Amino acid sequence: MASNNIINSSKNNRIPTNTDASAPAEFSAVVDDLLNTLSNKFAGVSSEIFAKMDEMSRRLDNLENTLKNNTSTENESPKK
Predict the structure, then answer these.
(1) Across 8-17, 26-35, 67-76, which has the greatest mean pLDDT?
(2) Using an 8 Å Cβ cutoff, are 75 and 67 in contact?
(3) Do the beta carbons of residue 23 and residue 17 sit within 8 Å?
(4) Phi and psi based region of residue 30 (left: phi greater than 0; alpha: psi -120 to 50; beta: remaining)
(5) How far apart are CA 71 and CA 29, in angstroms?
(6) Distance from C-alpha of 60 to C-alpha of 54, rounded to nearest angstrom
């Protein structure tokens, strides 16, 4: 009797689909949508990383120029 309850409950828990033939098509559509979403997120993160790297490069260039200017003015000024 207990095995009949398990079988009946598993039948009730099954998610109904339109037809069994359309299940692979629905699964494929869901997977395609997931892949597109992941691809868009990856592209967004990649562009953010490249933007931050460009900003770091610009800031490092400015720092390098400032340091060069400071060392050149120290060399020109007379020492005590």
Answers:
(1) 26-35
(2) no
(3) yes
(4) alpha
(5) 63
(6) 10
d(CA 15, CA 7): 15
Which parts of 1-80 fold into alpha helices (H)?
A: 2-13, 23-76
The reported pTM is: 0.56
Q: In whole angstroms, what is the distance from residue 22 CA to residue 34 CA?
A: 18
Tens-place pLDDT, residues 38-52: 999 999 999 999 999
Taking CB atoms within 8 Å and a gap of at least 24, the contacts of 13-18 are none
Phi (first) and psi of residue 14, to 5 degrees: -70, 135
